[in-house]
């Protein structure tokens, strides 16, 4: 009974896609497989003639022979297939790989003659299966290694592109990097997601990181004092300690970024964006890492809170207001606001400046002045109303603007005054106009007017007195009395 062998890769290829040389190689391969199958069948028939009762055993032996042959072909095909994938770049990758496998196997067995396999030489089916499994395991391990190398290459390329990388593992273990690049619709949510990947630290881990940071700083100090002719080994050891200290510093920073976010939430709505508050708080966190003293026995978060709050409040004092106010005055304004809120709750009404002054130990005038400093400027273009048709500047009175009625009345008064002055002589009208500033709005003295006309100041006084008597006559003054109201 003929034995059915495992279908090879070459038999699965569409022959219409192969070249004549490849078809010839496949034909030779099929002939050799047929010869091997015939040899196995002959051996099986011979065994069946010697032992007619062991019919089942004969079939098993033939199956073993066929399986062994197929396993040998598989073992030869796998490395050839890998070489084919590395060296062949064709338009149809699947076909090219199959052809390469066929040609490689054909080259290996080109001069081999068909052999009759004896039962004693045929390995057990279980042994062949075990060998097959081990070969598959080796292939899978190699594939996993290639995948890991590919992921590492991708991570390094992403880091070169400027992506934001967060470490989520222990410093002693290989660092696994998560790279995120590009803008998102919600940068705050994206930032919180990234910092949430870093695990929090306990007290022992904080002390361990602080020790490594301290060792790195000391090594940096020693390296600066190291002479130029020092041993390279000693210099290399110091550089490694410095590098380890920097890694520990970054780890301590990344593990406490969520503390900055929780503190920055308390200062929202005071003139700065939430992300700006977080960035300023991160600067305070860096300062806390550099100044942390683990020998005091306190947790790092207890110490870092004060540095973070100080950095945020300083940034708000410098950047939050349109008109900058000195930091010490900002502290007084904040203290006044806290006392005012507390007294509002206690008294049930707004406290008076006198009550605030008594509570803050300052004068009422100083309280009013500080309250003026604390006012926020508002834009004149702020829209008002539901539709926003009007602006805030439209409702503010211009104290320097002229009322239209007053402007008309002033124009009529000037016209009437000039008509009255026209009834006087030229010198009399000129003296009165310069004396009261009717021309340029600047009244002149008697000496200045006397120099203009070349007379003494006494003569100018006499002319003025005579002219004013004429103007008081009802024929001239009656038209001007209506403007006295």
From TrEMBL:
GO molecular function terms here?
DNA binding; sigma factor activity
Which residue ranges have biased composition labelled Acidic residues?
97-151
Q: Which GO terms describe its cellular component?
A: cytoplasm
InterPro entries the record matches: RNA_pol_sigma-70_dom (IPR014284), RNA_pol_sigma70 (IPR000943), RNA_pol_sigma70_r1_2 (IPR009042), RNA_pol_sigma70_r2 (IPR007627), RNA_pol_sigma70_r3 (IPR007624), RNA_pol_sigma70_r4 (IPR007630), RNA_pol_sigma_r2 (IPR013325), RNA_pol_sigma_r3/r4-like (IPR013324)
Polar residues: which segments have biased composition?
A: 1-25
Keyword Transcription set for record: yes
Provide the family line.
Answer: Belongs to the sigma-70 factor family. RpoD/SigA subfamily.
Q: What is this protein called?
A: RNA polymerase sigma factor SigA
